[in-house]
Amino acid sequence: MSNIPDCCYDYRYEQPQAQIVDTCDICGEGIYEGEEYYNICEMNICEDCILDFKKTAEI
Ligand SMILES: [Zn+2]
User: Fold this and answer.
1) In the structure, what pLDDT confidence band is assigned to residue 13 with cuts at 50, 70 and 90?
2) How close is the Cα of 11 to the center of ligand 1, in Å?
3) For residue 42, pLDDT beyond 90
4) Å from CA of 5 to ligand 1 middle
5) What is the CA(8)–ligand 1 centre distance, in A?
6) Confidence at 18, pLDDT banded by 50, 70, 90
7) 9 within a domain of the structure (yes/no)
8) Ligand 1 centroid from CA 38, angstroms
């Protein structure tokens, strides 16, 4: 087990009993129990989608 990088291990290991608590209003993916997400103006936005809204100010 020690030769598997943490990131791959987490990705492979989807919690089987995690419940969908809500759905992302942008991509429609389920938001699972214990997962962090954003609630902005009554919209649920998952961590993947919030990155799409992040911008770096540049001229
Ligand atoms: Zn999303």
Assistant:
1) low
2) 17
3) yes
4) 26
5) 21
6) confident
7) no
8) 10
pLDDT of residue 3: 64
User: What is the whole-number distance in angstroms between the Cα of residue 1 and the centre of ligand 1?
Assistant: 31
* Residue 28 CA, ligand 1 centroid: distance in Å: 6
Residue type, 12: R
**Side chain identity at 8, as an amino acid letter?**
C
Cα–Cα distance, 27 to 53 (Å, whole number): 13
> What's the rounded Cα separation, in Å, for the pair 9 and 56?
31
Domain containing 36 equals: 16-53
| Residue 49 placed within a domain | yes
Q: What SS3 class is residue 44?
A: strand
C-alpha 39 – ligand 1 centre gap (Å) = 11
Number of structural domains in the chain? 1
In a domain, 10, yes or no: no
